[in-house]
Amino acid sequence: MDYIAILQEMVRYIDAHIKEKLNVEKLAARAGFSPYHFCRVFQWEVGYSLMEYVRTRRLFYAASELASGKRIVDIALDYGFETHSGFSKAFRRYFDCSPEKYRAHASFDIPKLPVLKKTKHYVHGGIVMEPKMLKKEALTLAGFALKTRTKNGENKREIPKFWQAYSADGRMEKLHHEAFLKSHTEYGVCFFENPENGEFVYVIGVEVKEGSAIPEGYHICTVPEALYAVFTTPPADESHFIPSIQGTWNYIHSEWFPNSGYEFDRNGVDFELYDERCMPETGKSIAIYIPVVKKQREH
Description:
2 domains, 9 strands, 299 residues, Arc Repressor Mutant, subunit A, Multidrug-efflux Transporter 1 Regulator Bmrr, Chain A
């Protein structure tokens, strides 16, 4: 299965039906994926959450029509915006000016279709081994949470800063001295609240002893039971540790999933597990847990 070819066809389909009602369920069904899996794959490969992409393409088409002299409210309605004010707000947020101002300099250029390219993702330090399949029971974590989103790569900037602050401001030391601590293994967990627009809560936490009292100030969450594909990142030194992790994620989405017979389990959460393997200065690695289910339909 070639994910890039499927997604390229889907961006063509979106453009061809840009004025129609489009939603996650309709688009995922056409692509042949579950809605949750399609949202995750689309975000990873295209760089936008699915409905953010649809909305952005509609704004581009609307902008191209401003040169036609057509009433702005009619353009807004054509492209799925319910009110003139709602369209103007979205337009200003993206183009940094009002539709009226943009119209004065607009040209009737149809927006070019993005061309998705399949690139080979290199992982420094070695190859990514095939995952182990592991059924893991639910567990409770206590730690600290960050609400973020994938829009414009916001999560890629905020999560590293979150880890840096956690390590430097005393929260890490305090957490690892708590009586409820079951082990010093740390989890970095993504709880997606809305896969359609890429909003999620990222938690840095440790596993809690059963029945332990947890003081106020900690974020408490449950990682549900799931079947996981567990990947181990190739060993790397400090300078190549993060690229090794990122390369493994690239491999999971671009190489493993398309040929695996599995898709994301929408009832699970994915996480990175930081244990003693990430402590040495050289040969550092972590485990990445991906909740999966067998595909209901083959493509």
